[in-house]
């Protein structure tokens, strides 16, 4: 009989690439991971790994077993959901991952609703960049998370995870309301025509930090317009970005949830670029009562103009 915990380790190795990365993510020692995988090979009766020096890769049998492991883990999530559903009431921790703008604009209202309908649940919110969500969900560090992608930065499907759409936002180009930067077209500042990304090729730009989806989105939007932005500031928090724009420090691309109230000194012009937010969870967990409860609460918390018609 194959041990499910060892199957999970094999699946993680196929995704993370090294035993050290698996050990770090799942709070094991590398030697413990190696021992468990060796035990799995003995259970399977075939070689699952090929070791060359410090490198370890999956054999064809190992890759095939990972495909079966995905199905097994999904069914276990479904079984867990049914067991919870059989109990009366929901209780215990619910670990929620979110990116900062959703943490401010959506999550607090959702938690208020959750407390009214399911007072036994204990939501625990952690800010996390969407790029790190998949590993955190698969490792069991999160139960549900909000993730996003952009028109220029689509997110690939993640093994072992499922998502449901939550909302869609337009992006706007934020520019100082008065005065133009050197090199921008005459009259560009604050005009609908000047809001086209290409009109700001010579302006200083404010982007998110490298490695984030927001940074990649700005870079690719500018490249699609035929130039590479001249970055002056790298800031992740959109309120700070808008304050810098108002101070004449540059232009930036900002999603609707990142704007909030109008900012004096900033002109926002909507662009045909969108950000889509989705609710992510482990495959098979959609029917889990706690996941269903927070999903319902999150949908109700989305501003009406951003909701996706059902």
Unreliable stretches covering 5 or more consecutive residues:
185-195
Rounded radius of gyration (Å): 23 Å
Largest sheet geometry:
6 strands, mixed
Q: What portion of the residues fall into strands of 2 or more residues?
A: 15-25%
Topology-level CATH name of the largest domain: D-Maltodextrin-Binding Protein, domain 2
CATH hierarchy class name of the largest domain: Alpha Beta
Percentage of residues assigned to helices? 25-40%
Distance between the termini: 44 Å
Strand count? 10
3D shape: globular
How many discrete structural domains? 3
- Average pLDDT reading: 86
CATH architecture of the largest domain: 3-Layer(aba) Sandwich
CATH superfamily of the largest domain: Periplasmic binding protein-like II
Short description:
The chain is globular.
Task: Describe the protein in words.
39% of the residues lie in helices and 24% in strands. With 310 residues, the chain is of the alpha/beta class. The chain has 3 domains: 81 residues, Winged helix-like DNA-binding domain superfamily/Winged helix DNA-binding domain (Arc Repressor Mutant, subunit A, Orthogonal Bundle), CATH 1.10.10; 110 residues, Periplasmic binding protein-like II (D-Maltodextrin-Binding Protein, domain 2); 106 residues, 3-Layer(aba) Sandwich (D-Maltodextrin-Binding Protein, domain 2). The strands form 3 sheets. It has a 6-stranded mixed sheet with strand order 4-3-5-10-6-9. Helix 1 packs across helix 4, helix 2 packs across helix 3 and helix 6 crosses helix 10. It is globular and about 70 Å long. This is LysR family transcriptional regulator. Belongs to the LysR transcriptional regulatory family. It comes from Streptomyces meridianus. InterPro entries: LysR_HTH_N, LysR_subst-bd, WH-like_DNA-bd_sf, WH_DNA-bd_sf.
């Amino acid at each position: 009989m194959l041990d499910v915990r060892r199957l999970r380790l094999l699946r993680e190795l196929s995704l993370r690439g090294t035993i050290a990365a698996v050990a770090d993510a799942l709070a094991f020692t590398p030697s413990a991971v190696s021992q468990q995988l060796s035990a799995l090979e003995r259970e399977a009766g075939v070689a699952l790994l090929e070791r060359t020096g410090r490198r370890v890769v999956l054999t064809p049998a190992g890759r095939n077993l990972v495909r079966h492991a995905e199905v097994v883990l999904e069914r276990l999530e479904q079984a867990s959901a049914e067991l919870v559903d059989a109990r009366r009431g929901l209780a215990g921790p619910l670990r929620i991952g979110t990116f900062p703008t959703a943490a401010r604009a959506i999550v607090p209202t959702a938690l208020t609703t959750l407390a009214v309908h399911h007072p036994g649940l204990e939501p625990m919110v952690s800010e996390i960049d969407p790029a790190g969500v998949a590993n955190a969900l698969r490792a069991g560090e999160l139960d549900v998370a909000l993730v996003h992608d952009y028109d220029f930065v689509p997110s690939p499907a993640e093994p072992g995870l499922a998502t449901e759409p939550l909302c869609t936002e337009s992006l706007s180009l934020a520019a100082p309301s008065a005065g133009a930067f050197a090199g921008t077209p005459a009259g560009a500042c604050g005009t609908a025509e000047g809001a086209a990304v290409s009109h700001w090729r010579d302006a200083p730009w404010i982007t998110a930090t490298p490695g984030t989806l927001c940074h990649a989105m700005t870079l690719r939007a500018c490249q699609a317009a035929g130039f590479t932005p001249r970055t002056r500031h790298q800031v992740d928090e959109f309120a700070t970005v808008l304050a810098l724009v108002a101070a004449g420090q540059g232009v930036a691309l900002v999603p609707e949830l990142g704007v909030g109230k109008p900012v004096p000194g900033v002109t926002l012009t909507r662009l045909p670029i969108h950000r889509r937010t989705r609710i992510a969870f482990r495959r098979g967990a959609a029917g889990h009562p706690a996941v269903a409860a927070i999903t319902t609460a999150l949908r109700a918390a989305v501003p009406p103009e951003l909701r996706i018609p059902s």
